[in-house]
Predict the 3D structure of the following.
Amino acid sequence: MVHLDVNGVRFSYGSKKVLDNVSFSITNGEIVGIIGQNGSGKTTLLNCINSEYRPKHGSVVIRDFSPDVLESREKQNYSADVQDLSNAERSRIIATVEQSSFMSFPFSVMETVRMGRYSHTGMFDDGDEEEIAKICEVMKSTGILKFADRPVNELSGGEWRRVMIAQALAQEPEILLLDEPTLHLDINHQFELMDLLKKIVSERNILIVIVTHDLPLAARYCDKIIIMKDGKIVDAGSAKDTVTTANIENIFHMRAKIGYDQDIEGIGVFLIGKIDVDHS
Amino acid sequence: MTSEELKTLLNLHKANKRKLQMIVAALLTLLIVSFTACIFVGSVDLDFKTAIDALLGKASWSQNQIVRDIRTPRLICAAVVGASLSVAGMAMQALFKNPMASPSVLGISSGASFGAALYIAVGYGMFQMAYGASLCAFLMAALTMFLVYALAYQKRGVNTLMLLLAGMAISALFSGLTSTIEFFSDADTVNSIVFWMLGSFEGSNWVDVKVILIPAIIGMILILINARELNIISAGEGKARALGVNVKNVRIMLLIGSSILVASSVSICGVISFVGLIIPHIFRTLGGPDHKYLAPMCILGGALFMIIVDTVARSIMPPQELPVGVITSLIGAPFFIYIMRTKKKEIWSS
């Protein structure tokens, strides 16, 4: 059981307020989607959660993580502010798949995934059977085993995204954060990826948080949804309760038909058209 | 998971490891063979038996002198300098996430030679100390390194254009400053400064070996212990941090390590360009970018390259000597353009 508590987080770039008193609490075993329009503060929130950014006010606390991740076992309290964890400790709890990432040198897929084991291995570990077995497992579950020895600069966008997810899983995190995981993927790969995340949650019982502006996909795949606008949470709850015609009209300024759809066994979102908003 | 898949992956890993170990072993053998062979080459011809006798001190006085006090220390200096510049170049390429980075391209060598020139012209008169020139070279190399890093490093990573332009500007600045010192110095001082600028092992002796060996070992250790981190840091510092690397410590160790290596090289033989660019590139193409093996390959390969180039430099038109820096520039500059053309995607897309 791991809990992620975001307590009154405020963040600003210079004088521009980006996050304004954001609070929520989520638990493992779920896919949580943070949705909102461009500039609503989603990615900034993600960066506050993984401690890349330090909130100006408030805190991000992880409770009940596995005691094994800590460097000194003296800490009896398995709850910590992400800012207080060392890089190595934090990387064993939280893994982040960034929106875009880039390799300067042509490492093989396998070498790239193995980098995820960094904080679990020492300087002289050179890939013993146990380590390779761990890599093999995550590569299998992300479906990238068949091109294990390909250089990463020869991969397609979808393949590369899966390699990054495998690398994140190799960290054996309890919380997996993904920033726009389906961006730039074709429809087929978008669904493949979301199915993969669903599988990961059920197999590993971890907490997955995705940031996305893809409403239909979020409505279908996320167990919980947090809707953001102008740096504030405007609605949060189950997909059924948050993805509503009213919310989509008010927040996204779109007319939509929404309802339970038998074919997809979930919430179907059909976007009709833009609503002209009177800004005066 | 079937054990079949794991077996395939394990074999893949082992085969790759074996291939890399083979390259390292082959390089080590080649280095030892070339080192021995190069002792025989020079303006004074020595046959095999005489050379061995001379090495053991049993030949004539002048032959002993040539082999033991001229050729051997010179070869050691060349080997250590080649190794230092290559592995420093490798570390800088990972740190700047850019295959074009190298001590000479980024102006670190110019900075170091300015430091040395400053000490010879001004410092020597004020305070005499052992290794004074080396120390000044190191301080300037480190300063230049941090300067280039600060100039080129932006929030989103290293911008290649900024990096190369910063290197060019800094290189020009320090060359100008060194020329200024030359202009105001007397003839003797100018002679010794010109020596730093040209890049040559002419006159390298056991004192130079003593000067370079310890800093070179320290610098190499600082880089070698960070081999794993180099792999990860070349994927971006944000990523490295997320994967658990203590980026600040690693960065400092790498910057200091490469500064020590460049400075100690410059302080015994002046500026030798492009070695730090060519060697890492060759071995990255040959054995892949895993720094755990790339680092030893650069050390051995750099040493091998430099003793061969230096032997060519001193024997191509005897009794005259070509400065070794001239040869590396002649090879290196076209190579630089070649990388720029072929690696367009990797270089400019960040």
In short: Chain A has a mean pLDDT of 89. The longest helix of chain A spans residues 187-204. The two ends of chain A are 48 Å apart (CA to CA).
